[in-house]
Amino acid sequence: MPTDNVLFVVIDQLRADCLHGALADHVDLPNLRALMADGVSFRRNYSVANPCGPSRASLLTGQYAMNHRSVRNGTPLAHDTPNLATEMRKSGRLPLLFGYTDATPDPRSHAPGDPVLRSYEQVLPGFEEVVEMRLEESLPWRAYLTEKGYDVPPYPDIFRPTGPRPDDPALYRAEDSDTAFLTNETIRNLRVRPQGWFAHLTYIRPHNPLVAPEPYNRMYDPVTLPLPARAGTMAEEQAVHPFIGPCHARNPIGGMVEGFPDLEPTDENIQQLRAIYLGLAAEVDHHFGRIVAFLKETGQYDRTMIVLTADHGEMLGDRYIWAKSTYHDAAYHVPLIIRDPALPEAFGTVLDVPTESIDIAPTILDRFGLDVPQTMNGRSLMPLLRGDVPGDWRRFTFSELDFGDPMTPTLPQKQLGLTPETTNLAVLRGARHTLVHFNGGLPPLLFDHEGEGEMRDISGDLAAQGWLVEMYRAMADHRMTHAASRFTRTMVTQDGAVTVPR
User: Fold this and answer.
1) Which of these is catalytic: 48, 52, 77, 219?
2) Which end of the chain has fewer CB atoms < 10 Å from its terminal CB, N or C?
3) Is 411 inside a domain boundary?
């Protein structure tokens, strides 16, 4: 039976350790686990950028942030950048968007007064927006709630708990949540689509504001959850590096739940918010299970390639940090599960090779016989899905973060005395060491995975200087190898322009 369809699911802000790691035994995700057993799981998969806009720009263009340069929510992405949607159209498939891509439009392609230039929550070129489900807008969902009789306040109050506690329920019932609505609309639309559809389904949850409808708001007992990972007190954490203090101040616990700006970072409050997050993850799992059930019911499950991942992770109080604008693994380590029905011998495989979010677009294009644009830095995972790890497969994963703002300087930008051009960092993760390089003259960090990992910076240890130099050399090589590559393999000759395939 042919593989006609593609279902590409992105769950916003889902940590990898909800499926394998510290939180895996504390959250029930039966449908995601069933997909793992029925597909291939990649355990060392990392997003190459944060936050939402940059991470999705990389995910969909197959480019590192250093090349596409849409490095902040609101920083434009060049309109002529090839992406998964524009390339899939070459196969005759119409890329359908159920949700959002957070693509900031290129102002050169629009009149100054064009309303698309008022929000970064726009649609990446090439996608057909079937159901709009954006964090700050979500107009179809809001209209639905209004028709159901809800009093619908504007964003962000629509995500405010209805009682005096952070874990009080959302104003909407579970059957009317944003997750439920998006799932309903996706199934309704796909039910009448002819075979050969390409659907990009993007769930907002478990992204903050952390609010959940009953029963998900109190599905997990905070007392039973493990405490966040910590290397000491908040003051001891801040002594590790100048970046940490402003990072703590920029993303306090109160920013994770609407209506509680003065929420104290006590263990009780931290665990309560972690429990809500896991409840939201469980809600997404339930509705993803409905999608799978629909595919099976209609005979499409074994005709559909399923790719499921997250755009980035979430610190969830680890190291006293919330959200994802940091260098720690929890902010970048995300699940990746691929089920290709044409490769049943791979079902249940777990791979431990380093993969990156930029590999997904080349993988889908390769699977359907399409050329991978020279601009894409990622590599197709199809050889790995077939059981063959190329001898020249990458040894490192690479991620970037821009934590500045050219209009309104961020707290870290101001406190560290940085310019918009220097408020950034890069992370290189190898088999044993992780290097974090900060721009603006800030000191580096080096972690040893065979030692205490991220719990101790060894960059100043005399015995670690050789490793530090080795990692810096590897980072320089990586950046030079993967610099913007639109014409790297193209030459103009007497016979015209010639491009040598990768």
Assistant:
1) 52
2) N
3) no
